[in-house]
Amino acid sequence: MSSEGKKLFNIIILGVSFMFIFTAFQSCGNIAQTVITNLNNTDFHGSGYTSMSIIYGVLSASNLISPSLVAIVGPQFSMVVSGVFYSLYIAVFIQPATWAFYTASVLIGIAAAVLWTAQGNCLTENSDENTIGRNSGIFWALLQFSLIFGNLYIYFAWQGKTHISESDRRTVFIALTVISLVGTVLFFLIRKQEDTKAPGDDDSTNEILGESSSAGNKMMRAVAAFKKSITLSLTKEMLLLSVTTAYTGLVLTFFSGVYGTCIGAVNRFGSEEKSLIGLSGIFIGVGEILGGGIFGLLSKRSRSGRNPVVMLGILVHFIAFYLIFFNMPNDAPIAPMEGTDQVAYMIPSKEVAMLCSFLLGLGDSCFNTQLLSILGFLYSEDSAPAFAIFKFVQSICAAVAYFYSNYFLLQWQLLIMVLVGFFGTITFFSVEWGAAAALAARGSDYSSI
């Protein structure tokens, strides 16, 4: 297999592995609050929102050290170990205990930081400035198939059910745990790239993440990775992109946890309210996959760079927020187990709810594919620290959003996303214009990014 073929193979395996792991994890997150609501009249006293807040809070802090951990053990083994912890978190729901639930939330927060830092490094190592857009799209599209499979099962398994029984819960989470473990094992298929550089050549990525049998050298690279993360976080480009990244964290919280809970709480949807949670996840996944395919795989046909895709993303999201505001009751995110009988500005429509799910996924893919692409382009030699900063900002904003989701009415959650999304789009434009100018100065074609 040629070098380029091997790199493409690695990207596909990376995407498929993440697809399996996040088929389990995202399905878990989508139904966690609904399942927990049915458990809270037992000895279990946990909150899905609080768990997710812990996960993303720990994830954000762990991103300060994740480049160092990846430097010591290598990206492939880092992803394998992280996948095991994802599986353990999902397995907690088979027989829930409050202490185990929150302990697993802390552990998976650390694992997630390491997983995504290693993923960013693996994506960048197997790409160059001409293939980073394509590879980002392939990875994102494969990853987002995760939203289809798990939610499809939930839709059919829970159709017509208003209460989730112990048997239903165990069946779902045993299956999700096995799926997560399959994705973890697939990481072993990723092939290591051969070092083609001369012995005296300098490469800061290899300096930080290269392999060595010397424990001293590994520790030096770990310290270098930490210092590089601090340095990069203070650059103008990274500070501007952090606003855009913050928006993706808020949206992640909304579509992966809050919106499904809102749908499941609307009593006017009748006996379909619980199965609609799964159907909503499917439509989100369709939007994500479509966006990844169009804006990633077909990026070479665009001569306008990344800004038009991000502009489309924010417009799609604003339409979705407007329709959700009209369609969903304000108290839906914080409704009790009995649900809510309130009505917003229209009779709740299942069709509009599913359309909004699709738009949320499509818009999210616009932002994430372009963020992955521009980070891989700007920081090709410092990929691990750059992606660690990306996940740090995204996860700390997701943690904050999960926390306030326990208390804020729907209208205030939507308003926060509108404001942050507006400013995040402007800051992304600024960085992209700078990247285009730098590429033009090097005599490269702007469409190649």
TrEMBL record:
Location (main, coarse): membrane
Residue stretches in coiled coil: none
GO cellular component term, pick one: membrane
A family per Pfam: UNC-93
Transmembrane regions listed in the UniProt entry: 7-26, 46-65, 100-118, 138-158, 170-190, 238-256, 276-297, 309-328, 386-404, 410-431
Keywords: Glycoprotein, Membrane, Transmembrane, Transmembrane helix
Membrane topology summary: Multi-pass membrane protein
SUPFAM superfamilies: MFS general substrate transporter
Keyword Ubl conjugation: no
Listed InterPro entries: Ion_channel_UNC-93 (IPR010291), MFS_trans_sf (IPR036259), UNC-93-like_regulator (IPR051617)
Localization: Membrane
PANTHER family referenced in this protein's UniProt entry, alphabetically: ET TRANSLATION PRODUCT-RELATED (PTHR23294), UNC93-LIKE PROTEIN MFSD11 (PTHR23294:SF0)
Family according to the record: Belongs to the unc-93 family.
Name by which UniProt lists this protein: UNC93-like protein MFSD11
Organism, as annotated: Nicator chloris
Source species taxonomy: Eukaryota, Metazoa, Chordata, Craniata, Vertebrata
Gene transcribed to yield this protein: Mfsd11
